[in-house]
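Module 6 notes. Inverse folding takes a fixed backbone as the condition and produces residue identities as the prediction. Think of it as a translation problem where the source language is geometry and the target language is the twenty amino acids. Below is one complete input and output pair. Work through it position by position during the lab.
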């Protein structure tokens, strides 16, 4: 397979059936067994608990070993964890769109050119011409956290800012599946709330909240959506500190208490509880 660098309109390579020689890219027979299991369950994707139970039964494997195999599989295949009710389900969706050198094969040269057009790092403002920096295309929300290749999720960063951001995000990689699942919530309140919960009481930079809030649909006023969570009984505290992902002093948020989501629309429930909502004011 030749990766030419221009992939617009390129046909998706179909998933190989279990037993196919194409699966020799996987390091061990145990990985192939895991692949076969996920392949058979594409219509009804398993939870991590089910995957662990399956490999424990077949191979007597410890859970941590199974978790590692799932990560290995992602070197070759897309296996996003998608939230379904209380669970995360692991769905085999296709070949990985990441090349061996870590770069994406999904971005066309046209998209890259458009992202890099400002010729300036989106964080520190340095330019190749004046400061000799090298600009790279950065995913605001990393791919592993559910970030897409949409132009809204891409920005030009100098290599230095990019590696600083990567190092910060790497410290939260163990929450990657929960963060990715948060981004799939259909309502902005849900994406923000689930993201704060995914950090398990750690501070979340506003730069990340803003991007995850906007992932299904752009949110101009995501701060308002975040404040509205308090109407649902949530306790969220904020502080000002340097954001190592942007280099600027920024607001950070932390959830201290949360409530289950309402049965129906969150937005409707927020409106019902909003004291400034005219419909909720009693007539004198
Ligand atoms: Zn920079």
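Target side of the pair, the amino acids:
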């Amino acid at each position: 397979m030749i990766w030419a660098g221009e992939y617009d309109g390129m046909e998706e390579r179909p998933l190989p059936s279990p037993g196919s020689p194409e699966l020799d890219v996987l390091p061990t027979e145990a990985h192939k067994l895991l692949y076969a299991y996920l392949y058979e369950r594409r219509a009804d994707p398993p939870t991590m608990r089910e995957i662990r139970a399956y490999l424990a039964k077949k191979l007597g494997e410890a859970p941590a070993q199974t978790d590692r195999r799932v990560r290995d599989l992602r070197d070759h295949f897309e296996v996003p964890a998608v939230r379904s009710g209380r669970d995360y389900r692991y769905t085999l969706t296709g070949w990985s769109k990441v090349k061996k050198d870590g770069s994406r094969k999904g971005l066309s040269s046209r998209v890259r050119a458009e992202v890099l057009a400002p010729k300036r790092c989106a964080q520190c403002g340095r330019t190749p011409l004046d400061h000799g920096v090298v600009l790279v295309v950065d995913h605001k929300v990393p791919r592993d956290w559910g970030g897409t290749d949409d132009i809204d999720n891409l920005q030009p960063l100098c290599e230095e800012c990019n590696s600083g951001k990567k190092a910060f995000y790497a410290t939260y990689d163990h929450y990657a599946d929960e963060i990715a699942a948060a981004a799939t919530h259909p309502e902005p309140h849900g994406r923000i709330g689930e993201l704060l919960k995914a950090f398990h009481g750690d501070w979340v930079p506003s730069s990340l909240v803003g991007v995850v809030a906007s992932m299904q649909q752009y949110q101009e006023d995501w701060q308002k959506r975040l404040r509205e969570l308090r109407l649902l009984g949530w306790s969220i505290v904020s502080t000002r500190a340097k954001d190592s992902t942007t280099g600027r002093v920024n607001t950070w948020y932390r959830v201290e208490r949360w409530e289950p989501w309402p049965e129906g629309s969150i937005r409707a429930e927020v409106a019902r509880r909003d004291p400034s909502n005219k419909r909720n004011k009693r007539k004198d």
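Reference fact for the lab report: The two ends are 74 Å apart (CA to CA).
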